[in-house]
Every structure is written in structure tokens, then in C-alpha cells.
């Protein structure tokens, strides 16, 4: 099939998916687009061409030729390593793992290697933790000592993992499980399977060693002391690796396989360049601790498309290091194009943060569907991170059954956020200095979003000393239990936004300024359309919006002057 035929087929498929979703959620048609009085909407797509795809010599080596046995019993670590080495020594090519069950320890990739799983190939990484040596690496945005990842590559060029097989990380041998995330029957079966439960009876661990090691590590971190290597050895059962770690690599292709049941995060490209991830299925149990799908950290030039996620933590996540370590590294995640992805479960569908201290910029997300994710579009950080998140363009995202917020910006990821509906408390008046530790989120453009069912439609939460700035929502329709809340924000534009809450105000702003609400829809019987609070609230414009359906159009809170609103 030529490229033109492929393009036509893809457009037809995209259109069919959009129509199907609209019918499924009962929308009937997209929200009509109306003109903007401000003329400042900038939700057009970024121009982010996909990066180069690696090419390989026409050479193919089969792991069976080097002693591999796919019976699910024989350990194939050495056979796979020999095959990769032989292919690399010959100049590169494809290493084939045929159909069968392939038990193995960690697989270390080499440059110019395409690791290819044929249909029917199931690679099961050994649940014996001793097969994974301790290495100096980076985890959750900081230097760390962890076990080697089941799939590992560092400082490589031209690498690929392709085919239609499955990688299983044997995460059950590594992960603790919280009782609150399981049904009573699941918890009972898990405890009966072995392992130990902590003293409170709330967390199950695969072994007593894992339980003890985690408490020792927590105590060392509490005392702000880096453990010695011998101490790490004693804690090794708790040092869970990500399943796929690609560190400092260029020209990467992941196309086709399923990656499931990871010990911690699933796929973690770190400081990589020119990545293409497509046609992947990324799975973890929904209760899996740190069970992220994809964490792109300090990477540039990435295309992520036609992937399905069903995971236990954030699904598609942009990161760039944590706190001082991330700021000193100073490598942003940038130039990322995400399209045509589906997320079934996860803490967030598309996420930025909270480890974003090196910055995140120039991200384009479109034509994605989130079903049952805890939150939909999730932006998170806190004081101490620093970093700048900017130029984020999101359009045509469809959501259903979101237990928390459909769209959320949370600069208090560590907690202690002020109550958007209450009065300012003395603790919230504390002055914070703006410095390198202050996170900045600005210029985020979201358009053509439909969500049917959320606990809250939108939550925009900045910091008093650093409001989130330049947030634009256009052609958005959300049904939720509660509406839109916005605290400590500047330059917010809501155009053709329809929020349908079951209770409370449709939109509530506190200590926010320079807000334009243009062509907004007010659902019949709304208690209050617009609630204004906080003595810093100013410059609120309500344009071309019929709010007659509300029982009360505007509620001015204490210390809010009526002249802050113009219409």
C-alpha cells in the first residue's frame, strides 16, 4: 500500500472513531465553533514533524540458533545475549524471538539492533530478583540505585523493539499492593498466595525482605542521607526497576509489541532523542504501585501514536527531572507529538509532572480517548520543583466516566491547596519568594474536548506568587458533578465552553485576573453561573453569554468589588 493510500485510510479511520465516540456518549455532534471577541485563541497545532526512524542491515538472527529454548522453563538470558552480540558484531540487524514462552533475565540492547518478537512470542522476565544486578541510574527524576531493568539500553544509536509478541515483566514478584485498591476477595487471594502484610494490615509485600527494605530506605531518605552500596544491597528487594529503560539513546523505534506487568514504570525513555512509539499495547493491573504506562523524561523529538494504555498510574506522562537535580540537568522534554491513543485506566490520561524541573515545552496532543481514567488532562507540580511548562497544544480529546477532574492543573501536588470556595485563611497569606524553585505553567491551549461524566469538570490551581498563565479552553463540553474552579490564575480565556454541573456554580474564580468568558453556555436550573471570590480577583469579562437559565447569574464573595466584572 502506498503512502497516499495509507494517509486516506488513516483519515477515514480517525473520522469514524470521532463519530462513534460522539454517538456513544450521546453528544450527537461536535460543539459548534463561534467567533472569538478577543481574537487571541491560538489552539492551532504545533508543527512537529516525526523524527527519523532507525534503519537496519538486512540481517536476521534467531535466538534458537544460539541455544534459545521457548518452553517457559529454560532460562534464555545467555542465549538472547549471545544472539544480540553476534548480530551487533556483524554490523547490526534483526534479532528474532519466535513463538513460544521465553523465560529470561534482563535483556541488554546494543546499537543497530531490532529486537523482533514474532506473533505468539511471550517473553517472561524471571521473577527471581537475583537475576537483576544493582546499577546506578535515575528513577523518579533523581539519581538512584535500582535493579537493572528487564529491557535496558544506554548510549545507543538505532535501536528498535518490534513485532506482535508480548513482554511480561513479572511485576507481581516486585510490587507492593495496597489493600484499598482491591476487593475483599482479591485481597484475600493475594494474602493467601504468599508474601507478607505490614503491621497495619494495609499493604502486602512479595517478601519479608521487601517489607523490611522499604522501611529502611524510607528512614534513610527521612534523614537525608545517601545509602552506601552495601546498604543498597541489603535493600535490593525494594529497588524495583522500570521495565524498559532507554538512557541517552538516539533513533528509537518501538512498534507493535505488548508491554505488560512491569515492576514499576512500564516504558521510560530518559534523555533520548528521535523516538517513534506506535501500535503498542501497554498494560498494568489498575492496582499496580507506580504502574505508569509511558514516562518520557528529558527527551526531544518524539512521535507517539496508535497506542493503547490500561495501567495503574499515569498513562502518557511528560517529565524532566526532580527539584535541584532536574534543574541542574536542565534538559527539557520537548517537541512531542501524541495522537490517536486510547487510555482505559490510569491516574491520568495525558499528564505533565510532577517531576518537570527541567521544563516541558512544545507538546502537541490530539485525537485521543480516555475512558475511566482517574483524571483526564492532568498538569501537576509543587513548590520546590521549578521548571517551565509552556506551549502545550491539546485538541480533540474525548472522555467518559472520569472519577475526578476532566481537566486539572494542580500546583499543590504535595497537598495543602486552598479551598476554592472558601475565604482566604491566614496560612494562605504567607508570602513565598519567586525563585528557581517556583514552577511556571503557561501558554496551554485546549480545544474541542468532550467529556461525559466526571466528578469535577475543570480545576485550575496556581500559586499566589506564580499564577498559571495563558490558559485557553475553546469548544469544550463537560458534564460533571461540579463545575469549573479557578484559583490564582492570570490570562484565562474560555470560549464556547459548556459546563453542566449537577450542583454548585457553573464557574468559580478566586484570586484570578484577566479572565474572559466568551460565548459560554449556562445549563437550565444552574444554582449560580459565575462565583467570584478573593480580593485579588479582577478583570473578569463575560461576553456574548446568555446566563438567564441560572437561578443567580453572579455571586460576589466577600471583598470582591462588583466593578471587577464587565459584560
DSSP strand (E) fraction?
35-45%
Head-to-tail CA distance between termini: 56 Å
Radius of gyration: 25 Å
Which structural class do you get from the secondary structure elements?
Answer: mainly beta
Estimate the helix proportion, in percent.
10-25%
Categorize the overall geometry: globular
Task: Return residue spans where pLDDT drops below 50 for at least 5 consecutive residues.
Answer: 1-44
Profile the largest sheet.
Answer: 36 strands, parallel
Number of helices: 6
- Strand tally: 41
Mean pLDDT: 90
How would you describe what is shown here?
It is a single chain. Helix content is 13%, strand content 43%. With 567 residues, the chain is mainly beta. The strands form 3 sheets. The protein has a 36-stranded parallel beta sheet that branches. A 3-stranded antiparallel beta sheet has the order 13-15-14. Strands 8-9 form a two-stranded antiparallel sheet. The radius of gyration is 25 Å and the shape is globular. The chain starts with a helix and ends with a strand. 49% of the residues are buried.
Amino acid at each position: 500500500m502506498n503512502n497516499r493510500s495509507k494517509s486516506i485510510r488513516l483519515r477515514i479511520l480517525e473520522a469514524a472513531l470521532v463519530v462513534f465516540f460522539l454517538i456513544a456518549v450521546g453528544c450527537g455532534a461536535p460543539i459548534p465553533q463561534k467567533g472569538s471577541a478577543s481574537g487571541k485563541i491560538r489552539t492551532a497545532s504545533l508543527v512537529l514533524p516525526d523524527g527519523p526512524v532507525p534503519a537496519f542491515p538486512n540481517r536476521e538472527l534467531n535466538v534458537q540458533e544460539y541455544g534459545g529454548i521457548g518452553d517457559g522453563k529454560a532460562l534464555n538470558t545467555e542465549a538472547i545475549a549471545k544472539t544480540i552480540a553476534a548480530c551487533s558484531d556483524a554490523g547490526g540487524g534483526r534479532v528474532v524471538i519466535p513463538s513460544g514462552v521465553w523465560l529470561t533475565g534482563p535483556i541488554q540492547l546494543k546499537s543497530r539492533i531490532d529486537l523482533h518478537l514474532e506473533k505468539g512470542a511471550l517473553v517472561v522476565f524471571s521473577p527471581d530478583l537475583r537475576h537483576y544486578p544493582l546499577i546506578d541510574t535515575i528513577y523518579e527524576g533523581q539519581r538512584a540505585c535500582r535493579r537493572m531493568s528487564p529491557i535496558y539500553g544506554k548510549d545507543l544509536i538505532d535501536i528498535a523493539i518490534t513485532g506482535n509478541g508480548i513482554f511480561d515483566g513479572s511485576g507481581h514478584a516486585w510490587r507492593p499492593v495496597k489493600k484499598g485498591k482491591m476487593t475483599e476477595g482479591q485481597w484475600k487471594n493475594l494474602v493467601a498466595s504468599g508474601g507478607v502484610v505490614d503491621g497495619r494490615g494495609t499493604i502486602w509485600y512479595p517478601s519479608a525482605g521487601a517489607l523490611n527494605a522499604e522501611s529502611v530506605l524510607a528512614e534513610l531518605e527521612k534523614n537525608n542521607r545517601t545509602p552506601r552500596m552495601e546498604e543498597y544491597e541489603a535493600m535490593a528487594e525494594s529497588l524495583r526497576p522500570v521495565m524498559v529503560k532507554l538512557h541517552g539513546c538516539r533513533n528509537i523505534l518501538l512498534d507493535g509489541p505488548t508491554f505488560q506487568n512491569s515492576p514499576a514504570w512500564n516504558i521510560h525513555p530518559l534523555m533520548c532523542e528521535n523516538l517513534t512509539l506506535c501500535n503498542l499495547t501497554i498494560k498494568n493491573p489498575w492496582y499496580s504501585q507506580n504502574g505508569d504506562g509511558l514516562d518520557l523524561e528529558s527527551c526531544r523529538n518524539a512521535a507517539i501514536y496508535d497506542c493503547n494504555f490500561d495501567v495503574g498510574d499515569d498513562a502518557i506522562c511528560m517529565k524532566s527531572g526532580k527539584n535541584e537535580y532536574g534543574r541542574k540537568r536542565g534538559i527539557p522534554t520537548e517537541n512531542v507529538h501524541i495522537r490517536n491513543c486510547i487510555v482505559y485506566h490510569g491516574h491520568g490520561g495525558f499528564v505533565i509532572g510532577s517531576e518537570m524541573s527541567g521544563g516541558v515545552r512544545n507538546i502537541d496532543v490530539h485525537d485521543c480517548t480516555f475512558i475511566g481514567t482517574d483524571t483526564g488532562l492532568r498538569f501537576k507540580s509543587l513548590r520546590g520543583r521549578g521548571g517551565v511548562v509552556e506551549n502545550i497544544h491539546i485538541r480533540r480529546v474525548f472522555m467518559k466516566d472520569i472519577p475526578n477532574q476532566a481537566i486539572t492543573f494542580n500546583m499543590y501536588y504535595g497537598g495543602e491547596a486552598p479551598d476554592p470556595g472558601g475565604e482566604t485563611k491566614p496560612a494562605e497569606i504567607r508570602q513565598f519568594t519567586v525563585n528557581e524553585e517556583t514552577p511556571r505553567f503557561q501558554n496551554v491551549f485546549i480545544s474541542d474536548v468532550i467529556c461525559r461524566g466526571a466528578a469535577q469538570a475543570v480545576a485550575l490551581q496556581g500559586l499566589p506568587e506564580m499564577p498559571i498563565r495563558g490558559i485557553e479552553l475553546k469548544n469544550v463540553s463537560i458534564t460533571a458533578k461540579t463545575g469549573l474552579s479557578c484559583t490564582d490564575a492570570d490570562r484565562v480565556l474560555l470560549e464556547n465552553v459548556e459546563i453542566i454541573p449537577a450542583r454548585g456554580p457553573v464557574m468559580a474564580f478566586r484570586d484570578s485576573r484577566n479572565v474572559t468568558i466568551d460565548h459560554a453556555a449556562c445549563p437550565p436550573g444552574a444554582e449560580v453561573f459565575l462565583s467570584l471570590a478573593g480580593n485579588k480577583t479582577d478583570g473578569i469579562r463575560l461576553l456574548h453569554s446568555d446566563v438567564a437559565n441560572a437561578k443567580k447569574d453572579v455571586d460576589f464573595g466577600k471583598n470582591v468589588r462588583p466593578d471587577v466584572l464587565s459584560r
